[in-house]
Amino acid sequence: MAQLVKLSNYISRYETDIYRYPSHFVRLKKERWGNLVQEWNSRQKIDSLQSKFCADETEVKSKFKGKFKKWFSGSKDLDTWEEDPPREKFLPKSQLHEAFMEEIFHFQLNWASSTFSEISHLNNKYYNDSLLSHLLKELPDSFFIFYEPVFVLRKASVDLDIIILTPSEVWLLTPLTGNNHNIFHSHSERFWIKRDGENQEKVIHPFVSLKRMVTVIKEILVECELDIPIRMGVIAKDSFIDINASQQRVKLIDKRTFQDWQRTLKKIVTPIKHQQLKAANILLRNCKTNSEWRDSMGTENGTIEGSERKH
Hints:
This protein is α/β, with parallel strands linked by helices. The protein has one domain. The protein has eight helices and 16 strands. It has a six-stranded mixed beta sheet. The chain has a four-stranded mixed beta sheet with strand order 10-9-8-12, with no helix packed on it. This is NERD domain-containing protein.
């Protein structure tokens, strides 16, 4: 599962210590999955004993209630999974991993919008962002994702799209939103056309956003003397792009090619590298953050430096 190191302009656990939290996340995820499988197997044994030896269902549940109270708990805490009341429904094993990945997705949103001392107001749209969810759940642990980050370039705020920092390269992606009936094709230097049957609308040419991202990221990396290959892509996960890809330096990723592109990335089994951590640290330092002190810090109006700050 890829790691969400920066989301919008929210405070991120990773920006407090990028050299610690990637490995910490991997360890927590591994431990959580192991505990979940163990709890599932234990629950199976209880159900078996219940059917074989006890007609009184209430008696068995009462006997084991305390021992298995932690079944499939939530992810409220930032570093551990706290206890929740036991769930009434017992997940079949075929759905266990899917539920686990959804739980970790929510856990990542928590890490990407709060720390022990600060918190940002997370927009609920990210819980239902299918592209964000898919990238996080399907890409390797060693991938760092910056999703809609806000950078600062020469004192000006710049909104970017998606940055995927892998152990060996940087992917800059501009997403196109649409359904499986939409077809995107070129119209001019400034616009593309989004077509749905007989209906069509103009959308800003995605290369405009890509060029902006390249300018920002290249300047930051060159200034810090980091030589990392940069690749660019336009991603329409659920739609079609009707453009001759062979004539483009930019990777065009649509419904037909998305799975192949994803499989190529998933084959990268290289562990997290020091240069990758250094690059992530530099990028985070050039991002803008808007956060507030938590209530437990004893402040009434805890917005840091008025409304926002740059690390």
